[in-house]
């Protein structure tokens, strides 16, 4: 039998999440995938929360987010792009990022870089936090839609059921809807807003 390791357990959890959805990731299911008794996992990941934290570590590593000093706009673009890539390649596991706050030095490293970048640009600590939070919320919300799109589960409004005379604009835009354009628009709007906030503080 192959020796159990924390990394191997977590990678099995990622595979299981991508195949069956994040709700399928339990210690018992992971143990079954590995062909071991569940108690064999406890020395490596004692709880489901520990598994979730570990999945987040693996995903953030895979996203290759900035770990050295960069400008704030570079960090925002790379963070959003990294989350988009994770959503495409790990549509089930990426849900972990919406279930638990980041834990530990390894996972938090890129956020230290981000906070320093926003502070250097002119934000005070409170607004640097707000800027990072706004970026994370944008990235995770668009990432959720991207993950659903990859798995063919993206919800759509039943526009045909809406009376044309009461909903002319909704019916018009439904024919023009382009999710990728909307994701890009969200990113550029976020960056424009952050630039505006910084200009106000420099006056």
UniProtKB/TrEMBL annotation:
Key words, A-Z: DNA-binding
A Pfam family this chain is assigned to: TetR_N
PROSITE patterns to which the protein is assigned, alphabetical: HTH_TETR_2
Start-end of DNA-binding region: 26-45
Keyword set includes DNA-binding: yes
Gene3D superfamilies from the UniProt entry: Tetracycline Repressor, domain 2
SUPFAM superfamilies linked: Homeodomain-like (SSF46689), Tetracyclin repressor-like, C-terminal domain (SSF48498)
Domain HTH tetR-type, chain residue ranges per copy: 3-63
Superkingdom: Bacteria
Keyword Membrane tagged: no
InterPro entries documented for this protein: Homeodomain-like_sf (IPR009057), HTH_TetR (IPR001647), Tet_transcr_reg_TetR (IPR003012), Tet_transcr_reg_TetR-rel_C_sf (IPR036271)
Protein name as catalogued: TetR family transcriptional regulator
Origin organism lineage: Bacteria, Bacillati, Actinomycetota, Actinomycetes, Jatrophihabitantales
């Amino acid at each position: 039998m192959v020796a159990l390791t924390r990394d191997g357990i977590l990678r099995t959890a990622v595979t299981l999440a991508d195949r069956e959805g994040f709700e399928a990731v339990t210690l018992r299911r992971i143990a079954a995938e590995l062909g071991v008794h569940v108690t064999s996992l406890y020395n490596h990941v004692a709880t489901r929360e520990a598994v979730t934290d570990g999945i987040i570590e693996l995903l953030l590593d895979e996203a290759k987010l900035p770990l050295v000093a960069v400008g704030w706009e570079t960090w925002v673009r790379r963070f959003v792009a990294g989350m988009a890539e994770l959503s495409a390649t790990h549509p089930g596991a990426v849900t972990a990022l919406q279930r638990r706050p980041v834990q530990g030095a390894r996972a938090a490293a890129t956020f230290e870089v981000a906070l320093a970048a926003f502070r250097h640009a002119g934000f005070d600590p409170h607004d640097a936090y707000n800027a990072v939070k706004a970026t994370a919320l944008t990235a995770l919300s668009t990432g959720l839609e991207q993950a659903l799109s990859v798995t063919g589960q993206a919800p759509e409004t039943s526009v045909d059921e809406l009376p044309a005379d009461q909903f002319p604009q909704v019916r018009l835009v439904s024919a023009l809807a382009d999710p990728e354009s909307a994701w890009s628009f969200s990113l550029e709007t976020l960056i424009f807003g952050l630039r505006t906030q910084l200009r106000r503080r420099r006056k």
